[in-house]
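Dataset card, provenance and construction

Sequences and ligand SMILES were collected as paired inputs. For each pair, a complete structure of the chain with the small molecule in place was predicted and serialized as structure tokens. The example below shows a pair involving NAP. Curators did not alter the output after generation; any descriptive sentences attached to a record were derived from the structure itself.
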Amino acid sequence: MKFHRQHAIVTGGSSGIGQATAKLLAREGAHISIVARDRAKLEQAKTEIEKLRINPQQRVIALSADVGDRVQVEAAIASANEQIGSPNILITSAGIAYPGYFQQLPIEIFEQTMAINYFGSLYTVRAVLPFMEQQQRGQIILISSGAGLIGIYGYTAYSPTKFALKGLAESLRGELKPLGIQVSIVYPPDTNTPQLEQENKTKPLETKMIAGTAQTWSAENVAREIVRGIEKKSFAIAPGLEMSLLEKLHSLLSPVLNWYFDRIVAKIRQ
Ligand SMILES: NC(=O)c1ccc[n+]([C@@H]2O[C@H](COP(=O)([O-])OP(=O)(O)OC[C@H]3O[C@@H](n4cnc5c(N)ncnc54)[C@H](OP(=O)(O)O)[C@@H]3O)[C@@H](O)[C@H]2O)c1
């Protein structure tokens, strides 16, 4: 009952890491609002989350919105507030990733990835902020990536959007702290979700070999780390040893990692 009566809004809550986190919070007594585009997936997730409620007063609602569209985001957050009440927790998990060779990726992929991953998160934060400010409390959890700590071969459209979230979290943290609002940023490792499955279809071989050096997590285990981080009010949430080291030491580690990754790429190119 750690999140009893709290209202958590989870963008991307219909799938993967977002859905797993929403489920854990529901099991701890929270009201849940999930936001994503596809209505069928939303309804399916809503049903699954509802089954995990621990008391009949708990509400679960599903809202269809494209986070890349500011007006839709504002309408969804207003509706969540109207139906359940002021949000206590925001998790921005909605995101996309299209790996590929830089010269071969259409420019629209770069634009769309920034619109959804970065601006989608920014619009949602701005939309919940007035409610949290009024309550003088709240927690905002942005989902970045290991690719938001070091640039990775094949992720030229994706990595910069996740670096941008790191910049946003770091600069926003101090501004919101005096208002009683805690900002956190999550750096998930490769996680077994529909997104990763989709990525694997277009991933360059070099990216596959580089990613293959790291362990793949389950969405449930990543969600557990996120919820633990929320409880502890951690700023950086980096699941596992690899992500923890990367989060703390990325500037020191990147020359070594780049040397290692370049060797993998050279081997493939031979
Ligand atoms: N899986 C990994 O290996 C991994 C690693 C590091 C970081 N991450 C990050 O973790 C987050 C969740 O990823 P995941 O792997 O759980 O992906 P996922 O299973 O594909 O879930 C993505 C969620 O985002 C929603 N979404 C996508 N575009 C949206 C849009 N424009 N508007 C509203 N909702 C949108 C999707 O629903 P609709 O498509 O119906 O809108 C879905 O609910 C992402 O930000 C991702 O970049 C993932």
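Derived descriptions for this record:
The chain has a mean pLDDT of 96.
The radius of gyration is 18 Å.
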